[in-house]
Amino acid sequence: MTEQATTAYRICPFCEACCGLEIDVEQQRVVRIRGDARDVFSAGFLCPKAIGLKDLHDDPDRLRTPLIKRDGQFVEASWDEAYAEIARRLPPVIAAGGANAVATVLGNPTSHKMSLMLYFPRLARALGTRNMFSASSVDQVPKMLSVGLMFGSWLSVPVPDIERCDFLLILGANPMVSNGSLWTVPDFRGKAKALRARGGKIVVIDPRRTETADVADTHHFIRPGADVFFLLGIAHTLFDEQLVRLGRLADHVAGFDQLEQAFAPYSPERVAARCAIPASVMRELARSLAGAERAAVYGRIGTCTQQFGTVTSWLIDVLNVLTGHLDEAGGAMFPKAAAFAANTRGKPGVGRGVVTGRYASRVSAAPEVGGELPLTCLAEEIDTPGAGQVRALITVAANPVLSAPNGPRLARALEQLDFMVSLDIYLNETSRHADVILPGPSPLEDPHYDVSFTQFSHRNHARYSPAVLARADGQPDEWQSMLRIGAIAKGLGAHADLDALDDAALEDDLKRSAGDAAGQLMAALAPLRGAERMLDLALRSGPYGDQFGRNPGGLTLAAIQAAPSGIDLGPMAPRIPEVLRTPSGKIELAPPMLLDDLARVAADLAAPAPDMVIIGRRQLRSNNSWMHNLPVLAKGAFRCTALVHPDDALRLGLTDGAMAAISNGERRIEAQVEVSAEMMPGVVSLPHGWGHNLPGTRLHVAAERPGANLNALLDENLRDPLSGNAVLSGVAVEMGPL
């Protein structure tokens, strides 16, 4: 008898837009994927990546059983054998070198896995290492640091209230492709079209005329890495022309008096040549921002992955404050997530704030930020001998050999480790170096709640996805693997009672937060276990929760399970001062760390412009490197091309479609040229995440068109000194025909 077709609902795990999907299933196979028109957040929108979910689940290269390396070759193993190998080899490394002999690396897909998001902190505590790294430090740490200093919490990121905005200034971001980054906004195209239809305006500042620039009213080229000068020119104008309007925030800011003096040296006329934007444009944009009733400034990856990433990120929010558009409808506002947001917990309006530099990396003395060290320090921590040297590594859904600068050095370093474990669904450029690979379930086999992205969403909501397909017998939850490895690290062995460990950890957390009520709360959360139990706790104790019966009708896990298309929690609303977690209870407009860094900005103002610099590029179908292995996303025109302006092509002897050599000192790659007037002269753009030509991987589709690895050109020692974020944009290169 044929199994009846069913329709399941799943939040798309491919990017930060987190669109709601309807998935038709027959006989445990996906037969159709479409947008969920009733989804309270995405309203039926989906991009081409979503249909790749079927290819991901069915991919013959996707790992389904653990692998153990024997005599240099991977062999399939049982879960018990894999955990036993970890138990045999990890504890001796810790015993010999201490906790810091082990390092961890988290990759971007972790954000789309509820189990990993909620249980990696348990593993981290069990390991006790300071050597924790993630993709955040090649992506977003400058923004996290700047908002942490200003508002008191690492993830208190104001996002544009696009559905009520009338003037949107976008720097170094391409939401037409990303549908937001640190801004969860599915169907940006539709929302941008509606903004312009109601008489609003969008201005894009970018070294490339991007897909977002194409739907904007105005686009201006900017010299890569010079956003700080452009923003300072606007800030100077606001004071110079007496356009500052703090409005109701006047009583909630600290450090305002220091800003005018700090910005005084940076008139638009003085910085125009450095950023390649006319002074008249900066002054007119300042007037437009100040004069608009509802406006916002938004910047993203291009503003973070540069030498002044933290100061640039700070200035974006300073402009929103100075023009009266922070925390106002139609401006840059703070989402109010239903669960897990630090800015909804504890006493509202005040807190401990954030602290950095509690310790530093062993070799380069790079400061800790948010409990992590810069990913670009990982190779030197492995290949530099001495006390505290990293001898073991645990990677979680991470591929830093492709995603971090100077991957070749990192690859060589990984081969020197005593032991390496990868939690990954692919044998990729990084996991090929592992001794044990533990594959997680397919996203279709996992329940899901967006732990992070609800904190950046343009509209408040709560959605839950149950597993769509049954998983293979014996496949553990990823939270169980986190606990299992943690138990091994603590000397409890591979057969520790995970339920007992989970109960003890949660009860300890509850005793700290709820005191004598911990036992009652544990009972109220039964019979749930693992990640779903933590989710129920966070929802029920969150700002919309039922407060364990004290707020009847409030959110619970059961409530969102009963709403397959989600629960709408309304538009963003003003949250200052309650959202603040700074010791002063104020918005800190002038953190000393950031004011001090203006000295470095001043020194760079007169720096000459190189003949050619390189920047990255975001693409709709290749948000992460593993997407290059999905046939439905990999098909079509070859996308790993080096975009150059026609004038540069003529000057350098480059031909459209031909190969070119791109070099940075001794580092060199070869890439296919694409001549395009969308590029600013003097700038070449190459997308990230390519370079699938390394031996020992199992990515057959990606290997057919491997592309060039942009990050192989970049210097791992070049970082924003405040945040430790890698500098990926505005790096000088030489380019010529092969």
Fold and architecture overview:
By secondary structure, this protein is an alpha/beta fold. Among the domains are: 1-58, ADC-like domains (N-terminal domain of TfIIb, Single Sheet); 150-347 and 588-602, Dimethylsulfoxide Reductase, domain 2; 610-737, Barwin-like endoglucanases. The protein has 25 helices and 27 strands. Strands 5-4-17-16-15-6-7 form a 7-stranded mixed β-sheet, covered by helices on one side. Strand 6, helix 3 and strand 7 (132-134) form a beta-alpha-beta unit. The model has no long low-confidence stretch (mean pLDDT 97).
Keywords:
single chain; 738 residues; alpha/beta; N-terminal domain of TfIIb; Dimethylsulfoxide Reductase, domain 2; Barwin-like endoglucanases; seven-stranded mixed beta sheet; 25 helices; 27 strands; globular
